[in-house]
Write a structure and sequence with these properties.
- The chain is an alpha+beta fold.
- Helix content is about 55%, strand content about 20%.
- It is built from 12 helices and 16 strands.
- The protein has helices at about 1-20, 20-60, 80-85, 120-125, 150-155, 210-215, 235-245, 255-300, 300-310, 315-350, 365-390, 395-400; strands at about 65, 75, 90-100, 100-105, 110, 115-120, 135, 145-150, 175-180, 185-195, 205-210, 220-225, 225-230, 250-255, 350-355, 355-360.
- Strands 1, 3, 4, 5, 6, 7, 8, 9, 10, 11, 13 and 14 form a 12-stranded mixed sheet that branches. A two-stranded antiparallel ribbon has the order 2-12. A two-stranded antiparallel sheet has the order 15-16.
- It is elongated and about 100 Å long.
- The two termini are about 30 Å apart.
- This is FtsX-like permease family protein.
- InterPro entries: ABC3_permease_C, Lipoprotein-release_system, MacB_PCD.
- Pfam families: FtsX, MacB_PCD.
- It is found in: Cell membrane.
């Protein structure tokens, strides 16, 4: 058995050395491009998913979110709960949010949107919205009569450029009217417009906790959610368990648990596209290698006849051609790996600009190994059948060429 493999390897390397170098290099280059294609799209998808995850943590949910338990609408005594959560090991800071239904009006534009409420000092320590100001300034604790709006809420004067209903291109310093569901109407000056490129976050508006207490006419001590930022390097699931062990009775979820439902359909769609691309790439690889090996075996038909005439077993001849495709496949995959690493380095410096953010390539080692194995299997399949067909011809037919 070992002797057969040695003979097959000897024949494979000998045939490769004697074959056209240009043809062999071209085949290796095609395999490298096929491998690159198999990895590239999945790495772009991986980068997009990583971007969505990062945006969710930085701008929308933070690391952990506390929601009212069961069918309750609000978390009561939320300021006391925030103070309690801030003392739990692993928690960096917590910020309570409240929401109140309203309609926003600017000239002829009117949109219905809940107004979110937070303590700006707490929010700065939990999310990074304050770092993404497109224009103007972030809110402060003392702000009254001022509002912070997302880029999609501000919109454009040309409505065809808007993703959602908007206020028609308002700017910082403009005044808008907010009609709350409790019947109170307030005129607000736009203090700032933020742009995180997250669809959920950029279609939100915020006022300060002090402002909403003026609107309600009484001190507010309940919230719809509490965002929790964990200490760097800590695992959210462990901090969640610690929080529950400290007697937090509300519904506590990590960002992955909360966001899973938000992105599952998008990720599933991405995976379908990726699987189709992977299948097409493998078919291309099989067809290309099949054609190359078929041409090579036909070219070496007479040589195969001679090998059979001197007593070389058919299986050894077939193995030698399979080994050729394996050698070509391995070299192509190594070159493809180098191309992928170069692309990762390039796009880390110059990320791809999508409407929802800048995407760098994100490659999981498992996907790279899986793609390499699939490509090698494709190489074996492509090399086996042409070699088997020629090797099984009788000696005289093969020697006639």
């Amino acid at each position: 058995m070992l002797t057969d493999v040695k003979i097959s390897f000897f024949l494979a390397t000998r045939i490769l050395k004697r074959s056209s170098k240009a043809g062999t290099l071209l085949t290796i280059f095609i395999i490298a491009l096929v491998f690159t294609n198999m990895i590239f799209l999945s790495s772009v998808i991986g980068g997009s998913i990583e971007l969505m995850n990062q945006q969710t943590v930085d701008y929308y949910i933070s690391n952990i979110i506390i929601k009212p338990k069961d069918d309750n609408r609000f978390i009561d005594n939320s300021l006391g709960l925030v103070s309690k959560v801030n003392r739990i090991p692993g928690v960096y800071h917590a910020s309570a949010r409240y929401e109140m239904g309203a309609s926003l009006v600017h000239k002829s534009n009117e949109i219905a949107l809940p107004v979110s409420v937070f303590n700006p000092d707490d929010e700065r320590m939990v999310t990074k919205i304050h770092e993404m100001m497109k224009e103007g300034q972030f809110l402060t604790r003392e702000d009254r009569g001022q509002i912070l709006i997302g880029n999609y809420v501000a919109g454009n004067k040309d409505e065809s450029k808007d993703f959602f209903e908007s206020l028609g291109g308002v700017k910082t310093g403009d005044s808008i009217k907010v009609n709350y569901v409790n019947g109170v109407s307030r005129d607000y000056r736009i203090k700032g417009i933020f742009q995180t490129k997250s669809y959920q976050t950029d279609y939100m508006v915020f006022v300060s906790w002090n402002e909403i207490e003026d609107v309600l006419g009484y001190p507010l001590d309940k919230s719809v959610e509490i965002l929790v930022k964990t200490e760097p390097g800590t695992r959210e699931d462990r901090v969640k368990k610690t929080m529950m062990s400290f007697g937090i009775k509300e519904d506590v979820k990590t960002w992955k648990e909360q966001a899973g439902g938000l992105f599952d359909e998008s990720i599933e769609s991405f995976q379908i596209i990726n699987n189709i691309t992977l299948l097409v790439s493998l078919i291309i690889a099989i067809v290309v290698l099949f054609i190359v090996i078929m041409i090579k075996t036909l070219h070496n038909r007479r040589e195969i006849g001679v090998l059979k005439a001197i007593g070389i077993d058919e299986d050894i001849i077939i193995q030698s051609y399979v080994l050729q495709t394996l050698i070509i496949g391995i070299i192509g995959i190594v070159i493809g790996f180098c191309i992928i690493q170069t692309l990762i380095l390039y796009f880390s410096v110059y990320p791809i600009e999508f409407p929802d953010g800048n995407v760098s390539l994100y490659v999981e080692s498992g996907i790279m190994i899986e793609s390499a194995i699939l490509l090698l299997i494709a190489s074996v399949i492509a090399g086996y059948f042409p070699a088997m067909r020629i090797a099984k011809e009788d000696i005289l037919t093969a020697m006639r060429g």
